[in-house]
Amino acid sequence: MVVELIAGVLSAGALYFLAGARVVQQFERGVVFRLGRVRGGVRPPGFTMIVPVVDRMRKVNLQIVTMPVPAQEGITRDNVTVRVDAVVYFKVVNAADAIINVEDYRFAVSQMAQTSLRSIIGKSDLDDLLSNREKLNQGLELMIDSPAIGWGVQIDRVEIKDVSLPEAMKRSMARQAESERERRARIINADAEFQASKKLADAAAVMSDTPAALQLRLLQTVVAVAAEKNSTLVLPFPVELLRFLERAQNAYPAVVEQRPPAGPGVAAGPASTPAPRGTADSYESAAPEPGPSDSGTPPTGTAGTVGTVGTTGTAEELPAEVRGNLAADPLLDTLGPQRPTDVS
User: Fold this and answer.
1) How far apart are the first and last CA of the chain?
2) Are 28 and 59 in contact (CB under 8 A)?
């Protein structure tokens, strides 16, 4: 009888021991409630005992929790509609507060992250969302961490994962980026042309001081072209030669006239002095006296015949263009063969 009683007591003790035995993992902390009140401190990891039926222990995980924030659609400060999603890293630092102060700390952190993300979207510009994410991440972390401190939760970090833009905005940004790159390319090209022009100006100044350098440069260019096994060789024509020919053509006189020779009874002037043009008296004074056999035909050397102006052989020496200009001169048509007035 006694043996059976002892065996029953031992069995009850074993059942009591097994019912009150608890094991807390290294990454957990235990909070014991006795009759609805927190008893003592937080149970450390390892083996611990509670009073069966009277005590109830809740374990809290202290590992870092990775919680994705659903994509939130909002309007930025510069009136652009975007969809932004993020991820929150947090952990429990006070197991008792995480159990007592909030019903579900995970759900509370998730809702707080969503509302904070919407607030950040409305306070930021599109350029900040795309290029200045570090500052936005810090601001979002502070907004979530402020109420989470009372929940026994510490926000480790918050990261914005993706920013979704409308298709029209994507096309506009692509055109803007293309225009910007084209502008940079043109600036670089213009800068290169400016530097090349300065170097060419310096080279031209050096070659103007030494004309032989220009000839040597020309020969080097010809050698470089001929070295490429080309069947056609192009030689540059000097522009200075064209300008010289143009100046020579402009300096050539349009009409060349000389003084007609003196006839019998008229004193001849110097052979090198040309006769003045534009008055008929000068031709009359220089005309020779007609002979007895004259029949109105002007003598050789008068202005009546264009081909015999000047001394013998002068008309043949004139170019054909000058002879044509003399034939079309109306002044020579008025100065026909005239007989000098009989003063007797």
Assistant:
1) 202
2) yes
Farthest-apart Cα atoms in the chain, separation: 202
Residue 238's pLDDT is: 66
Q: What is the DSSP string of 30-84?
A: EEEEETTEE-SSPBPSEEEE--TTTEEEEEEE-SPEEEEEEEEEEE-TTS-EEEE
Strand ordering across the sheet containing 37-38: 37-38, 28-34, 55-61
Q: Show the low-confidence residues of the chain (pLDDT under 70).
A: 228-240, 252-344
Q: Name the pTM for this structure.
A: 0.51
The pLDDT of residue 188: 95
SS (H, E, C) 8-40: HHHHHHHHHHHHHEEEECCCEEEEEEECCEECC
The whole-angstrom separation of Cα 234 and Cα 231 is 10
Cα angle, residue 13 at apex, residues 12 and 18 outer, rounded to 5°: 100
Supply the pLDDT for residue 339: 46
